[in-house]
Amino acid sequence: KMKSRGPNSQDFFQNNDALGNNVYLLHSRLSIFDLSKNGKQPFFFRNYVIIFNGEIYNFKELRSILIKRGVKLKSNCDTEVLLHFFIIYKEKCLDFFEGMWSFVIFDTKNKTFFISRDRFGEKPLYYLQNQSGFYFGSEINYIKNFLNKKIKINEYQLKKYLGFGYKSLHKSYDTFYEDLKIFPKSSFIYQKNLSTLFFKKYWKLEYKPDNKVSINETISESKKLLVDAVGLRLRSDVPIGLCLSGGIDSTGIASIAKKCFNKDLDTYS
Q: Is 90 exceeded by the pLDDT of residue 17?
């Protein structure tokens, strides 16, 4: 069922205890950094295991920090860097990451879960709670496959969509199915028991206008931020393509990739 999400490798982790608690973490990998088996998931280090969907764009800089701290790394992938930053900084690790992500870290010793989604909710993460457990996945279909009965349609959400369109969908964390929710963006949970979820916000967008900045300074800083952002996202151990719509966004990205970083990208339109 998850093959379409990652054709490079598939694996799972399970942990069962005497109290009847069962933890299953399943992952399909699309290799972007470190194409070897060293980067396969679930990824383990001591009593920690992680499954991670996304990219940490600044992982090379963070990797250098870990090496200076004496951490011995076995791969060149961002998954390992993410896990070690969590081990060192716990929930504060999220302050270091520039990227898009949804991930789950399970501590097999303390039986705790750390689950997080990126600042703007670029990477999907859905969940459902019922009497039999807590289910989560990057797509709703995966969750539905684990349930013995059909999930009821959320008719209110459906009517809202038909009446007000696509933008009405993100006014809440509801989906088209009852009891199946969207994990909040820029949030995390860090707890043992998942029967009741305690979401914590780790970031919010703040509007701080500075009227003393000149137009030339604004243009210069905006260009620098855009070029730096595109540069980070061009990191990859596999070929990169670009969806070229003809609009100013994709044209700007293609231009920066070529003129500033001399990248020859395949484009699709």
A: no
